[in-house]
Amino acid sequence: MPGLLQCLKGKDLGHSSIVAEFWGIEIDVSDVRTAQNDLIKKLIDPALLDEVIAALPGDAKAALDDLIKMGGKLPWDQFTRQYGELREMGPARRDREEPFLNKNASPVEALWYRALIGRAFLASASGPREFTYIPDEFIHLLGEQNSKFLPAPGTIADPQDYVYQFPATDWILDDACTLLAGLRMGLSPELIQLAMWSCVSESKNPD
Q1: Which residues span the domain enclosing 179?
Q2: Are 79 and 118 in contact (CB under 8 A)?
Q3: How many CA atoms lie within 13 A of 198 on its CB side?
Q4: For residue 119, what are the β-bridge partners?
Q5: CB-based contacts of 14: which residues, under 8 Å, 6+ apart?
Q6: pTM
Q7: Residue 61 forms beta bridges with which residues?
Q8: Into how many domains does the chain fold?
Q9: 59/144 same-domain check
Q10: pLDDT digit string (tens) for 147-197?
């Protein structure tokens, strides 16, 4: 998953200042890069992360919980359809209208202006797709603090991974039966694995 650096990339100095204010921290605002680097160092604080999440509006907390349950990311269109749009506006309009303080701000906006979510094109089974994601640093912190946080197993296949298709076989059934039988007999996993490999070798060399 992209990290906080990617999440803040391309944002102006005002955006970093808004995030810092929500987190109750002070940053060096001499320039954008310095501010972002300073901000990232201070955001990686487990206790502070807990406080920021606890202070979220209820619907924003529900949106974050939904992302966590899905391993830290969801397609952007699906996420915004369920939890509201992120109103697109330039720095001048943003600073004038302050959508991040608006009582009618969507859960997506509440998370966005706290840097709890990012937006990026990531690989998917159907090719690159725009996703909402929790920055990688926060995923690790949430995983350490919450035993119920279980990232989605495996990785998304790249297009080259399914260029060549192989027909399915019933070997998985044979292996499952061998595994269960071995476990019931009290055999070690290593011995069961050896038996599986022996069966495979015999099937390939029947003579």
Answers
A1: 171-204
A2: no
A3: 7
A4: 132
A5: 91, 94, 95
A6: 0.70
A7: none
A8: 2
A9: yes
A10: 444 455 555 555 666 566 666 666 677 777 877 887 778 777 777 777 666
